[in-house]
Design brief:
By secondary structure, the chain is mostly helical. Helix content is 77%, strand content 0%. It contains 2 helices and no strands.
């Protein structure tokens, strides 16, 4: 596997936005791990599912937007 730098800033932005969405999706589990250590209270169940749903919607919207941009550039 060859590692290449990203030359186009738009591609880097797309990649970064997907990673941010993935982090947001994992946030409830990270938060609960910290809570299990006794550092903070546990995140409410409703908040966990709201965060996960918003992150899933953001990832889906990002992927749909990327596909539509690819169609525009090929035409």
């Amino acid at each position: 596997m060859k590692i290449k730098p990203i030359t186009e800033w738009r591609q880097a932005l797309k990649l970064a936005s997907v990673w941010v969405c993935l982090f947001i999706a994992a946030f409830p589990d990270i938060y609960n791990t910290v809570a299990a250590l006794g550092w903070i209270d546990e995140l409410p169940v409703v908040a966990k599912w709201c965060i996960r749903a918003l992150a899933a919607a953001a990832i889906a919207a990002r992927l749909i937007k990327q596909q539509s941009l690819q169609r525009e550039t090929t035409q």
